[in-house]
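RETRY 2/3 - previous attempt timed out on the joint model. Re-submitting the same 630-residue input unchanged.
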Amino acid sequence: MAATYRYAMVGNSAAAINACDAVRKLDPEGSIILFGEEKYRCYSRPLISYLVAGQIESGGMYYRPPGYYRSMRVDFRKGTRVEAVDAAKRTLTTAEGEKVRWRSLLLATGFKPFIPPVPGLEEIDYLTFVSWDDARRMLARTAKPARVLIVGAGLIGMKAAEAAEARGAKVTVVEKMERVLPQALDEQASRMVWERCREAGIDIVTGQGVAGLEPRGGGKGKAVLDDGGELEFDLLVMAVGVRPRVELAEDAGLQCARGIEVDEYQRTALEGVYAAGDAVSAMDVVLGRPSINALWPVAALQGKYAGMNMAGKEVPYPGCNSMNAVEFFGLPVLSAGIVNPPGDGYEVVTRRGDGDDYRKVVLQGDVLVGMLMAGRIERAGILTGLIQERANVRRVKNFLLEEAFGHIHLPRSVRQERITETAAGIMKAGAARDKGV
Amino acid sequence: MAEIMVIVPVYAYDVYVYRPLALCLKVTARPGGALLPVRLEDEEGDLDLIRIVPREEYCIGCRLCEIHCVVQHSKSKNIIKAFKSERRPVKRVEVEEEGHVSFALQCRHCDEAPCVTACLSGAMSKDPRTGVVTNDPERCVGCWTCILVCPFGAVRRDEADKKAVGKCDLCPDLEVPACVANCPNEALLLVEE
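RETRY 2/3 succeeded.
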């Protein structure tokens, strides 16, 4: 007889953990089981570059304090892969053959690296840069000065480049598009990041793909580029892109042409089955349609709403947008919504200040649909908030790029309501004060 | 209350004219802080719901709240050392000003705080008991995601010690937060619900 759980979570990252938090807040009693494929407690995936660069220790990787699962009364199955889901019988089966019954199930299966077919690749011991194990492998293989070749200049590739550089490696990045971070940043910000990387000694080759690879043993090899150029490397990192991991959802009977589809309550088409995180296509408020935004904060938010709905509190997911906060060699760049307008019908305003100060807003009529700030990033969230709310910014259009832009520019009634009414109450007690809250 | 009369040259409207004057009076004549209308703890020692409410009709944009916030979060908590010799912490309250309107704004400690959900490292958390949103500088890696998502612009880079963010912590060592206690005009009120 299989054990029965009120909630089963498949996944052990941002979405699943925030779902557990949300469930526990509403349902202190219901039993929770959580399956994590890796051998770690929940850690923050985006921090692997900080770990490799030596900016944090291993202990700083964990997303929740020690004892988290016990204190939340979550039955945590470490290093356990869920192989199959039977939505009709409401069971799941692990790789070890254990069968578990559930009443509601969360699929938070995340993403997997996309590996393009490159001749010779299968004979090379290459890395992706998406897990703690990847970080450990990079640390080991950059212990001695190494030549590192990174294929792909997206967020993962550029963070891998920065981390490898910090390890003293000679880093080259090859990107098919004409610039770095082509999706997250606009041309100007791309140039600024490129400049910083160049100053740090990272070579970036754009407009080139890897046409073939020649293994030399021990993970080393030679890459031949589209134009015939050759690059020798000691370590190859493939960072071309990521794809949603939908095998389990498909096995359960869901159509997943573009990620796992969910409704506004994070419910899939199967009764009792919810989904959240990087595998999911959920509402993007800027695009006005579901989209996959494989980003940590988006996954966390979806997980939170999935958890609330699983626990019976019907709260619609407010939607999100494509948000990025990055920093390369001391240059911070924040962006939200549409930074590269896909066609006509958009108004783009930019401002270049001293040094690295660069900001940009993208408007569609009177609605703010995108922003980017580099260098001076303070108060960027005010713009992100307006984007998220689809606010009409007609009256404040001329102030959006000002450093002092804020609630002062909003009509008094709107401002007062936001500041005094929407703010939550907070409590402070003598005891809490003495100890430091 | 003489000091209040001195530091309210509202019509002059140049902060640089009266800011040094106000500061001077602050350290010499008013060590006790402003009068406050509320207490935080009732007689049984229970938690009271409080919030800081800015009153723009009384704010003159003197920015003393910002200054005393910096002092309170400095190493020495000494106004001269904080500004002249130590690494200056970031202000956790900000005065917004346009024409004759101004007000001070700090973290709202939101119910559904976007910064807490978005935090990559788990450094930003909301105390389930008190509701106070705090950032743990030991766990903060300075990824700036909270700055990206805070709709109030209330989180700032605070690289005084390490790469991390700073935000209003409601002055855990004080009965009344420094910005409220040092406002000469009661333009920041601590309100009990």
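The mean pLDDT of chain B is 78. Closing ticket.
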